[in-house]
Design a protein that fits this description.
Elements (H helix, E strand, L loop, with lengths): L8 E7 L2 E12 L3 E4 L3 E6 L4 E5 L2 E5 L3 E5 L4 E6 L6 E8 L1 H10 L12 E3 L2 H15 L4 H18 L14 H12 L8 H8 L3 H12 L3 H18 L4 H7 L5 H12 L3 H5 L1
Antiparallel strand pairs: 1-2, 2-9, 3-8, 4-7, 4-9, 5-6, 5-8, 7-10
Length: 273
């Protein structure tokens, strides 16, 4: 963390197993920001209002909107208002990862934002918030990949320059069943959803929808429930909560306990007793 006064709080959040995405949280910041965009950026403006100079134009942006920026470009954001202080979150996705997701959605050229300042619609705002929460929390790799796919799908629909895209149907049942088999395997927590979808010749977003339609949960939630259930069976067999957590890829025992309690209404220790 760093700050220029007692009120400003800045924090960068990232994951070693998800290096393509980084989150900046800025609380009560009064400063003027001059930013070189390394990746595709999405600034969710919570209470920040001001002007943004970008692409030789001055944009007005405020709370409830999303400011979109592209890699290799610079923008300058200056606050306005009574006290010139505001809060926002900036999610940045490296170009290779974002472009690969767009290709999976049917785009055949490099993505380009048609809307620089867009209203945070329930779809776009919800997708951004879900990925930010997952990145800041203890989400699995499968969940982070899923959240990114949902965000890119929302971007293609709402803020990326519209281009003709082929319509895609939900994937064949055999593809979804194969994904379920992989989630049950020892490699389940390390599966790369985009690679799997590409090899199967389907859109990653359609893959997520097809999986949920068939099994009732998206892949990341299915995988988490499965790991909790495996750990529960270990508790029944006499293993400790720490052993069950480690064997099922939970970050630590508290991570396991939190999810176990959410699903079963008690802690692993209470269940074991």
């Amino acid at each position: 963390m760093a700050g220029t006064d007692d009120k400003e709080r800045l924090q960068f959040l990232g994951r070693a197993d998800f290096r393509d995405v980084e989150l900046l949280r800025a609380e009560h910041t009064p400063r003027t920001w001059t930013i070189f965009n390394l990746g595709f950026g999405f600034a969710s403006l919570r209470s920040w209002n001001g002007r943004v100079d970008y692409r030789r134009r001055r944009h007005r942006a405020g709370a409830g909107e999303v400011f979109c920026s592209e890699p290799g470009e610079v923008h300058c954001a200056a606050p306005s208002g009574a006290n010139g202080v505001g809060s926002f979150d900036v999610l940045q996705v490296l170009p290779g990862a974002f472009e690969a997701q767009c290709r999976a959605e049917g785009l055949r050229v490099a993505p380009h934002f048609a809307a620089i300042v867009a209203k945070a619609t329930p779809r776009l705002g919800g997708a951004l918030n879900a990925l930010q929460l997952a990145l800041a929390g203890d989400a699995s790799s499968v969940e982070l990949q899923s959240r990114l796919a949902v965000l890119v799908n929302a971007c293609v629909s709402e803020v990326i320059e519209p281009l003709p895209r082929p319509t895609t149907r939900l994937p064949p049942r055999a593809v979804v069943e194969r994904l379920r088999e992989l989630l049950h395997s020892t490699e389940g927590s390390r599966i790369r959803l985009l690679e799997f979808a590409q090899q199967a010749g389907v859109s990653q977003f359609k893959l997520l929808r097809g999986f949920k339609r068939l099994y009732g949960l998206p892949p990341h939630a299915y995988e988490l429930n499965m790991r909790v259930e495996r750990a529960r069976q270990m508790l029944r067999s006499g293993y400790t909560a720490a052993e069950a957590a480690a064997a099922n890829d939970f970050t630590d025992q508290s991570h396991f306990s939190r999810h176990f309690r959410r699903m079963w209404g008690m802690t692993p220790g209470q269940y074991a007793r």
